# Entry
Amino acid sequence: MCQTPETFEPAFGMTKQLSLEFSLAYSPKEFADTLDDIAEGRIDAAAALTSKIGLSEVPQAFAALRKPASLVKIMVEPAKFSG
# Structure
């Protein structure tokens, strides 16, 4: 989601006969299809996971998520204890 206004030249898209479509969220079917793909092994969801943390590490993880390219997705494992 853009935080600042975006501009573009419609002529570029028109000459290439491009269509522009916006969406705000995924549909329930898209979520279901993606979960099926993960369950069947067609998508390796682990590839997007950059870190697994315990509850005590959540504040530091949120701080790290504010920095570009430090983390992508984290999994919080409540049973995991960190020293």
The CA atoms of residues 65 and 71 lie 6 Å apart. The mean pLDDT is 85. The first strand starts at residue 49 and ends at 53.
